[in-house]
Amino acid sequence: MSQLRLKVRIGEIEIELDGEGEIVRTIFQELKEDGLGSLMSKKVDNHNMIGNNRILDSKESLVSAQMNEETDQSQAVIENTELPFLGNIVLEGNPRSEKEWLLVYALYSSDNGQKLFTEQDLKLKYDESKRSTSNRMGNFKTNIAKLVTSKFIQAINNSDYKITTLGLEEAKSIIYNTREKIKKNKGDKKSKTAITSYNIVELNLNEEDRINLRTYWGTYKHDKTLDKIILLFNWMKEHKKIDEMGKDEIFTLLRILDENISFNIVSALTNAKHKMNFLLSSNKKSYYKINYMGEDYIKRNLIINGDKVER
């Protein structure tokens, strides 16, 4: 058998491993993943180790051992706090990509990192959050591979995965929206633009309303930003008898539909009114109403195959 000798230093502690290569590598990997706790919680099999294996510190004790700063950062402990309701994450829409959504599902499936999970567990989270589509399921394996490559999750065997410490940190930064925001150069005057914020508002939509909205959405074309805005005004007017909305109402409806909001809603509303004449200003500040030109635009250009959804 091949012999291997390793010296590992963790803070004040020096660990010397000298023995059969595979055994040494196994213990070294456990030290990397679990720290000194892996050696405190179990005995090393003396029959499998060859040579002098010494675990030393200045007082010949492991009880008061502390990890150095670098190890603390790489092996940070994540507190087991209660996670928010998954439905809130869907409404807030903090995940920016399907890879991030899958990492959030891994966080929930693993019970905050406390247990292993399977691919089927992740798919159940898609169903639970009502985000499962044929396109997302088609890219499921690809996004799993991306998480593994990013070291956010790790395959344990042919069916089980675990979320890593890095994955826990990233997932929680997503759901709590604590990621660092990119700041523009202060010296660049052209980049100084006001940042628009949006809020989830109560629209009093029951489950039947939400189903109707999704059905309606699938009946019309909405490739353009303008189309999305006008369709939402029209649905609220016809289905809920609400004929005026602002940016927050539009934002909330788009979140319910799980639509990507990579555009400025305020600018879209302004363009729909001033450039296309599809909206009118309401008596309420920064609120708008759809007019007959907007309604005609929907009937003439957006109905798929000429079929109008029943309401």
Brief synopsis:
The chain is mainly α and 311 residues long. The protein has 14 helices and eight strands. The protein folds into three domains: 72 residues, no CATH class; 90 residues, Arc Repressor Mutant, subunit A; 100 residues, no CATH class.
Structure commentary:
The protein is mainly alpha-helical and 311 residues long. It folds into 3 domains: 3-74, no CATH class; 86-175, Arc Repressor Mutant, subunit A, CATH 1.10.10; 207-306, no CATH class. Helices cover 44% and strands 11% of the residues. It contains 14 helices and 8 strands. The chain has a 3-stranded antiparallel sheet. Strands 4-6-5 form a 3-stranded antiparallel sheet. Strands 7-8 form a two-stranded antiparallel sheet. Helix 5 (98-109) crosses helix 6 (119-128), helix 5 crosses helix 9 and helix 11 packs across helix 13. The longest helix is centred in the last third of the chain and has 16 residues, at 225-240. The protein is elongated, with a radius of gyration of 28 Å. It starts with a strand and ends in a 10-residue tail after the last helix. Residues 40-80, 181-192 and 306-311 have low confidence and may be disordered.
List the helices and strands and how they pair.
Elements: E1 3-10, E2 13-20, H1 21-34, H2 37-40, E3 54-56, H3 69-74, H4 86-92, H5 98-109, E4 117-118, H6 119-128, H7 134-138, H8 140-149, E5 153-155, E6 160-163, H9 165-175, H10 207-219, H11 225-240, H12 247-256, H13 265-274, E7 279-281, E8 288-290, H14 292-301
Antiparallel strand pairs: 1-2, 2-3, 4-6, 5-6, 7-8
Helix pairs in contact: 5-6, 5-8, 5-9, 11-13
